[in-house]
Amino acid sequence: MTEPGVSPAPSVTEPVHGHQDLVEAAGMPVGIGVVEPVYDPRLANEDLAPLREQKWTSYNIFAFWMSDVHSVGGYVTAGSLFALGLASWQVLFALVAGIVIVNVFCNLVAKPSQVTGVPYPVINRAIFGVLGANVPAIVRGAIAIAWYGVQTYLASQSLIIIFLKFWPATAALNDTAQYGFLGLSALGYICYAILWVAQAAVFWKGMEAIRRFIDWAGPAVYVVMVVLAIYLVSKAGWQNISLDLSQGDSLTFAESIPVTLSAIALVVSYFSGPMLNFGDFSRYGRSFGAVKRGNLLGLPLNFLFFSLLTVITASATVPVFGELITDPIHTVQRIDSAFAILLGGLTFVIATVGINIVANFISPAFDFSNVSPQRISWRTGGMIAAVGSVLLTPWNWYSNPDAIHYTLGLLGALIGPLFGILIAGYYVISKQRVWVDDLFTMDPGGRYWFSRGYNPNAVWATVLAGVPAIASVLLPKLLLDLELTTVDLTWIADYSWFLGCGLGFVALVALERAAPRIGGLDRDVEQATDGTALAS
């Protein structure tokens, strides 16, 4: 076992090198985890095992968040806040306040994976059990499949614009009524397929290729968005730009407070996916301090600039085009310039490819590999998500602001409990102590075997928190639709993540104190990775 916070030394066991030789002979990237001889093959492969090296710097984490923020989905979600009836300064405040909350929670979820060098599903074995960890892994993986489809669909709209501009004859293929199937046109399928293949190609190259891609993708999008904002402001004239973009009924200050709080909650829900499995990336950080600095740069500071760009660009569309346009794809489409459409379209494609790979390809790759490490590799897990995304036909359910808000509420309801349980289990119950070798053993005497590989307290906490959180999203709208009530409580859905997170946290702490399952914290303590020992 290694010292706290220190990356494990490379393994020299014959099975690992034998596997490396085969992989290298096939021209594939070599696995980077250390599979110790004592690790059970039913729980370990080189993608899930503790890392040989942790090399990511603060810039790599910063670039990760730039790619995560600057997607079409990010701009559409931010723009949808105007439909709530908020003034621009209130939208800006909600965006920044929400991202500060995300920054705090990301640091919390980053630490256990960074100090142990293992991904999100593996660190969950310390709370759910070596087999029970498949519960949060499968839930998170399924959510990633849905989001992968959404982001690919949104990016495909940029490609459609390029096709229509440079090859007008393809307009016929964009007719869903004549050339459509399951709600999407033939041209839509072509563009979706192009992006599907491009993302798979980058993902297949491995984590280092992904790191290099996101290192320049985020800054590239920044440059184009700044140019777009400058162009629109120069066309409109600064004096003609009004920051009052509210599309809903005019709200008094008192009325705007609960709406602003809902907008903040929406921002947290939007980032709840990558926030939950951020350990998949923080494990590569060279130190926890480097991860925290990268989060500070990539979240509050980066998002503040992103928010300003969003508000200014949206504001400029009113005098330039005569209407408020919050979707950057539609903004670029309205510019009468072939070069602008080509540059803007390709930029948003790159932006969305970036977030899709880091947030929705890598997560299920680890999550599904965790289910059966010897049968499902990291690459196979990612491809399962890619194929599943098409089967969900995301274009049918993610095409308007109401759907965005409803989808994010349900997403938060599913993810919130898992986050609360992870934080309670690591920080409160386990006191930041993890015995890494025990994460990879099926020995009934192992620390994380619990009861047949499952911690019943964690499973029950998931149910006790998940059911009310999901109900908070589904029931208020259902009761209204069935006309069983005239009281509109649909606003509760905006807080589903917070409800689920809080209930999950409280449920696990209460169950563990009533009938402890996670124990042995003072036994072999010198062999544990102890997060409290880190100074930064």
TrEMBL record:
Per UniProt, what is the membrane topology?
Answer: Multi-pass membrane protein
Q: Which InterPro entries match?
A: Pur-cyt_permease, Uracil/uridine/allantoin_perm
Q: Which UniProt keywords apply?
A: Membrane, Transmembrane, Transmembrane helix
This entry carries the following GO cellular component terms, namely:
plasma membrane
Q: Which domain of life is it from?
A: Bacteria
Its annotated compartments are: Membrane
Bilayer-spanning residue ranges: 91-110, 122-139, 179-204, 216-233, 253-273, 294-318, 338-359, 380-398, 404-429, 457-475, 495-511
- In which family does this protein belong, per the annotation? Belongs to the purine-cytosine permease (2.A.39) family.
Would you tell me the protein name for this molecule?
NCS1 family nucleobase:cation symporter-1
Q: Which source organism does the UniProt entry give?
A: Sphaerisporangium rubeum
